[in-house]
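Good morning C.,

I know you're traveling, so I'll keep this short. The sequence:
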Amino acid sequence: MLFNLINLPISTATDIEAMDLDNALTNLNIYAPSALLIEKSSGDILYQKEAYTPMYPASTVKIMTAILVIENCNLDELVTVSESALSAVPAGYTVSDIQVGEILTVENLLYALLVPSGNDAANALAEYVGGNVPNFAVMMNEKAIQLGCKNTNFTNPNGVHDVNMHTTAYDLSLIAKYAMNLDVFRTIVSTPTYTLPSSNTYALNDRVLQNSNHLIHSSSPHYYEYATGIKTGYTNPAQNCLVASAKKDDVEFIAVILGSTFGNTTEQCKFVDAKNLFNFAFTYHYNYYQEKFKSEQTSSLSNVFNNIINTDLIVDANNKPLWGFVFYLIAKTTLILIAIIYILLRFIKKIKRYVYNRTHAKYDFKY
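The tokens, ready to paste straight into the viewer:
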């Protein structure tokens, strides 16, 4: 009996952490039928639920629309809003109150696209970049393929329901990961409110656009401290959709929620799911990635040093010092230091001379 007690397996800290992680995953109740959680920099998948199942995307397609606009336009380019851009939006879909014939910058329209999720702004930008909506949809699909998407088909730039349009949580994570590397996109999707300026057709400055992502609104019950974006979506067939991001220090996570129906009337489902995923990520994965990134930074600095000094030139095949080359390196380094000191002394001397001349200036007064 004593022998058996001595040989009982002892759980290490790693074993205990693994058990805690397994329990946390088991108890992670995500209401959405399709969901995914990744770490942004690495793309590591930390949680997935039907992440490769095709789903209707709703307004999350506007992430791709924004990518193409940002990569093909300057922010200060002027866009004239067409009648077709407004009339193509079905009744009941969100608009940003832009006007027919209104001239706005690309930047204005990007805010109208991503903050309140303006379908009219999406059409205006698609026409400007692609010439028309069908051409722009082709561009969207080409970009999706470039980003590695396997089960995505876009038919319009705004997410207005189309039975032929679909994507997956995994594909959306690839698109979002790419988009969040664009500074303009990152800034816009983290903006709680934006006011459209007055224009040639609208004289007032009262078009205040509210971000549909409650995670970034400090006054919202769904506010999340580390939230940095990204995009909501809703149609009756797609139900509640959300691509969200949260960042602490250098570690950022992206969560994708598709087809959520729980608590549908208050939209709380997708935000609750996202917050649960982020809490899980920061509790069980944050420390790992923080240490990993620190280690990678240290390693990169070491590589730089190794590239500067090639150790193969300092020792021979038998790992014995090549003293001739070592003395050469010492002499070269010494000369470089002497040159730097000489330049600094000359610079200091010039400054002193300048200061002296300024304080002892002679003035030749003319009468």
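Safe travels,
E.
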